[in-house]
Specification:
Distance between the termini: 42 Å
Number of strands: 16
Strand content: 15-25%
Helix content: 40-55%
Structural class: alpha/beta
CATH superfamily of the largest domain: Aldehyde Dehydrogenase, Chain A, domain 1
Shape: globular
CATH topology of the largest domain: Aldehyde Dehydrogenase, Chain A, domain 1
CATH architecture of the largest domain: 3-Layer(aba) Sandwich
Largest sheet: 7 strands, mixed
Radius of gyration: 22 Å
């Protein structure tokens, strides 16, 4: 099942053999069997293993993860798909489309998935591995309910499809979300939107300094995966780093953390010329917005700011805002209105939640996860139970 290119999509070729508005039972055996097989083929493929984000997706599809997700949803046995769901993936994240596809499929829907506009190798490899499974006669029903497409930005065919679809899932910036919200849709269309979000890392300096050397090095690798693999374009990639502790511990922790990261960057990361220009432009815009000069540290090709007024301004391509706090609850004053994920280092997510939510306070974030797990999309995302939304529950009483 080749990817439908923009010209073929506009001509309607994607409809050939596609069961429009076909639906299945929630998490039926064929779907679970397919996803578990997809997990195995990804995790055993040599090329796939070279992409950490693709390996993460492979683990997402594994049977144990599916079983937990199904068990978490009430009345799974009385749920069915709505019909055809259109998925709009962000153009700058290689595998977001794949997670969205799995959510729609497991919920029992047929799925038309618009792929990222950029030609990521992980995207193409993932689709090839899906296609390898769909040639199996056992999975033909899933093949008839699946299309991966590429479209022009203002595709009339895409707008027409959305007008008839049973559901729409949009991952993108605020402007993208607003544009798709405004399109005509069926009165009963189920809509799920994931607009712009921002995220942070919290480092307990004393806890970090107490880590064994091997674990400390691994934490730098995990932070690299959370941020530099996607140039901080993911909504869950940290742009702010909170350092918790006293000045002595924080100074030592910073020096060790950024030094360990530098060894990874020098060996594996090259910022392309256009990204380098955009990073400079971001800083210029930040200076103009704040209205005064900003202190900028540029060690190891990592740019670090320390002014709280930068909160909410665009930071990409290895640019971070660092803020020091002496008490955990001080983090609350800096969390932005669209804060999504708080990754943690040197302290457990459970401890962070307990301390932030003490005395009935609302943490103001949707996820607290260990460093290295920022990009691990879950079935609960942005506070939304996606499988519940994308499936129809039949009330039996």
């Amino acid at each position: 099942m080749p990817i439908i290119d923009p010209k073929s999509f506009e001509a309607g070729h994607w409809r050939t053999g596609f069961d429009f508005n076909a639906a299945a039972a929630f998490a039926d055996d064929n779907i679970q069997q397919f996803l578990n097989a997809l997990s195995r083929v990804i995790l055993t493929d040599k090329e796939a293993r070279s992409h950490p984000d693709l390996a993460t997706f492979g683990y997402f599809c594994r049977k144990a993860n599916l079983v937990r997700a199904i068990a978490d949803l009430p009345s799974a046995a009385s749920r069915f798909g709505w019909g055809t769901v259109v998925h709009i993936a962000p153009g700058n994240i290689p595998l977001n489309f794949a997670f969205s596809f799995v959510m729609g499929l497991l919920a029992g829907n047929s799925n038309v998935v618009r792929l990222p506009s950029r030609p990521f190798s992980q995207t193409m490899l993932c689709v090839r591995l899906v296609d390898r499974l769909l040639v199996d006669p056992v999975f033909k029903p899933i093949g008839r309910r699946t299309r991966f497409v590429q479209t022009d930005r203002d595709s009339a065919a895409l707008n027409g499809l959305i007008a008839k679809a049973a559901g729409l899932v949009v991952w993108g910036g605020d402007a993208t979300v607003q544009r798709f919200r405004a399109l005509p849709k069926c009165p009963r269309c189920v809509e799920v939107y994931f607009p712009d979000r921002v995220s942070s890392l919290l480092v307990d300096a004393a806890g970090y300094l107490a880590l064994p050397e091997e674990e400390a090095r691994l934490s730098a690798r995990r932070f690299f995966n959370d941020t530099f693999l996607v140039d901080q374009n993911a909504c869950s990639s940290p742009t702010t780093v909170f350092w918790l502790g006293d000045n002595v511990d924080i100074t030592r922790a910073k020096e060790q953390f950024w030094s360990r990261l530098a060894s990874i960057l020098s060996a594996e990361y090259v910022i392309d010329p256009m990204a380098r220009i955009n990073r400079n432009l971001d800083i210029f815009r930040d200076v103009i917005t704040v209205g005064r000069a900003l202190s900028l540290t540029t060690e190891h090709d990592v740019w670090r700011l320390d002014d709280p007024e930068v909160l909410g301004l665009p930071l990409r391509f290895g640019t971070f805002l660092e803020l020091s706090v002496t008490h955990m609850t001080q983090v609350l004053r800096y969390l932005r209105p669209n804060e999504q994920t708080l990754t943690t280092l040197g302290v457990t997510p459970e401890d962070v939640f307990r301390r932030l939510a003490a005395d009935g306070r609302i943490p103001g974030i949707n996820r607290i996860v260990p460093v290295g797990n920022a990009l691990d999309i879950a079935f609960n995302w942005d506070g939304k139970e996606v499988l519940s939304i994308l499936s129809c529950r039949v009330q039996v009483s």
